[in-house]
Design brief:
- The chain has 129 residues and is an alpha+beta fold.
- The protein is 18% helix and 39% strand.
- It contains one helix and six strands, in the order E-H-E-E-E-E-E.
- Strands 1, 2, 3, 4, 5 and 6 form a six-stranded antiparallel beta sheet that branches.
Amino acid sequence: MALKITTPIQMRFSDADSFGHINNVALQMYFDLGKTDLFNELWRLTGVAEQVPAIVVSLNTDFYEQIFYGDQVVVETSIESIGNKSLRLVQRLMSGEKLCTLSRTVMVCYDRQTRKSVAVPAEWQKYVE
């Protein structure tokens, strides 16, 4: 069963420049909100708690359409693939049916105490798209 989370975005006044264009840095923060919602749901569904954090090791973002202050946007987040210690997320920033920005992120499961990567919980595997 693929897990896809849709996160409505509430824009902040500081996200826009004087022309009303949303800054690319703000877009990355929108993607972070989607990641937060995805992991909260993944932890809820699997019972694997926050002791298995994942950290970003690679990020690739493509920009297709500008976003302006007041546009109604959502972030769609899903797990594209899972490896032994890493997972790849795909996120789409949508304004209605229009794809504005696409981001792919590789994250590694990480043990804070040992400061080493750890195996992805097996319970997460069934939520791959």
